[in-house]
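Much of what follows relies on a compact textual record of a protein's fold. With that in mind, consider the following protein and its fold in token form.
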Amino acid sequence: MTDLALDARGLVRRYGSVVAVDHADLAVPRGEVVALLGPSGCGKTTSLRLIAGLDRGEGTISIDGVVVSGGAKEVPPEKRGVGLVFQDSVLFPHLDVAANVSYGLRGDDRDATAQRMLALLGIRDLAARMPHEISGGEQQRAALARTLATEPALVLLDEPFAHLDASLRERVREEMLGALRRTGTSALLVTHDQSEALAIADRVIVMNAGRIHQHGTPEEVYRRPVDRFTAEFIGRGVVVPARVTGAGVASTVLGEVAVGAGTPAGECFAVLRPESIELVAPGAGIAGRVVRSWFRGGDRLLRIELADGTLVEASDSAWHAAGERVSVAVRGEVAVVR
């Protein structure tokens, strides 16, 4: 038995002269939640449609070890063992919640299965409600319950929380993630929300302009981006010119900074995250001026302009007014990209 719920190789989808997906490789290990992350229009949803069988392109797609697309083989969507959850819940408006969840199930235990899935998602008390009588978050939970009831080998989620307000989105996201974990269901989540991807995914695949830039754990893609796009797209921070001058040392506008000991010498860019920049005593670092400050609850995010016009961001617990003169320095090792 394969260790991969999804193994997609060399996916290509063209629309005339436009290449929406450009030789993309995607994998979802069994039992994991993988986020396919990228800006709008980068090819995420097109990739999902190829995997689901809702669109056709080039490449090979295997689900749970079985080839469902490749060469002359093309298994129809309903036979791929894939569950789909979209931005809109797409519940049947004429059926109550329980009937929506049991729809498509066969056998004498279909009602019991539906009730079990409703309980898993915490919405058993809504079983007799009609879709228009429940909230957007409850509709999404019902949609996932319906999907999980069929025990799919893979669940594909296309921006399922995009239409929910911020506080509700986080709660529904955690509940849906918990349901996936408890059932051991493998899932591919398409999202443009990097905080969402970093918070819930076991692995993250970064995509742009149809191509895969990096895949790894959330910490890997944040702390060790492989290229400038990933460094600038994932998380806050700035990318500044640098030059590796020796073993583990690079020269930047903020002075010498520590980099990986094996980093090759030469021109590159240093990735400076807010947590990499600290305020130090006057004269102990590089002089700058606060141009903006955001209160974030646990700390403040400061945007600081250096003498040469470079803007950096730092996190600090103290309040600093716009225009205040400060000194900053880099702490710890930073990533570099070329």
Remarks:
- The first strand starts at residue 4 and ends at 15.
- The domain at 236-337 is CATH 2.40.50.140 (OB fold (Dihydrolipoamide Acetyltransferase, E2P)).
- The chain has two domains: 4-223, 236-337.
- The first helix runs from residue 44 to 52.
